[in-house]
């Protein structure tokens, strides 16, 4: 089960890095698309709005889907979104790519937390969820500075290409390490039923 939680942690690292790294790349994006830095900042707002309004809709749409499949589908959105960011030919399509990428954000963390909690005994739930969210912390401490440095050294598009192997490793971990059906340890009432 520890390996399954590690896969969730890697995914959280990738998603967190993708969310925050854009701020360090705004001057490069602005120059590339020949726009002002404040206008380039719309990309940050677009991502936040997509997380706020899009993620709940995605979570509702996938609520009847088995959790492992949900996580894999959300990581697929992450991969496609970052690939689109890397090759966006103009500012408008870059915003669309960021909107797409953000759709996986809230739904992944919500579903991932439930899966992490259900992979361990009751007394280890908080630790499992905290371990998964360590990926988000590491994204801010390591991923964002590394992604920004890569973007400044090799061009901002390379940062999004750098995120693809992270997403792919996370997806493979989800496929091979997370059980197909995680036990629902939250539902105590059904355990007492005949």
Automatic annotation (TrEMBL):
- What is the first-listed, main subcellular location in coarse terms? membrane
Q: Identify the residues that the record assigns to the Major facilitator superfamily (MFS) profile domain, covering every copy.
A: 4-194
Give the transmembrane region(s). Answer: 42-63, 70-89, 95-120, 132-154, 160-178
Q: Kindly list the places in or outside the cell where this protein is found, as annotated in its UniProt entry.
A: Cell membrane
* Membrane topology type: Multi-pass membrane protein
Which UniProt keywords are present, listed alphabetically? Answer: Cell membrane, Membrane, Transmembrane, Transmembrane helix
- Gene3D superfamilies per the record? MFS general substrate transporter like domains
Report what the protein is called: MFS transporter
Task: Write down the species.
Answer: Granulicella cerasi
């Amino acid at each position: 089960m520890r390996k399954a939680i590690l896969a969730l942690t890697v995914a959280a690292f990738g998603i967190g890095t993708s969310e925050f790294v854009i701020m360090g790349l705004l001057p490069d994006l602005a120059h590339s698309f020949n726009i002002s830095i404040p206008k380039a900042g719309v990309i940050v707002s677009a991502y936040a709005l997509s997380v706020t309004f899009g993620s709940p809709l995605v979570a509702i749409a996938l609520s009847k889907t088995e959790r492992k499949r949900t996580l894999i589908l959300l990581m697929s959105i992450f991969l496609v979104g970052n690939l689109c960011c890397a090759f966006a030919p103009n500012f408008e399509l870059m915003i669309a790519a960021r909107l797409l990428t953000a759709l996986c954000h809230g739904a992944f963390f919500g579903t991932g937390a439930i899966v992490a909690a259900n992979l361990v005994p009751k007394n280890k739930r908080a630790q499992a969820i905290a371990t998964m969210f360590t990926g988000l912390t590491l994204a801010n401490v390591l991923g964002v500075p590394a992604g920004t440095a890569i973007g400044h050294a090799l061009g901002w598009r390379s940062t999004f290409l750098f995120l693809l192997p992270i997403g792919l490793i996370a997806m493979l971990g989800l496929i091979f390490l997370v059980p197909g059906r995680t036990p629902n340890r939250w539902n105590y009432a059904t355990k007492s039923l005949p």
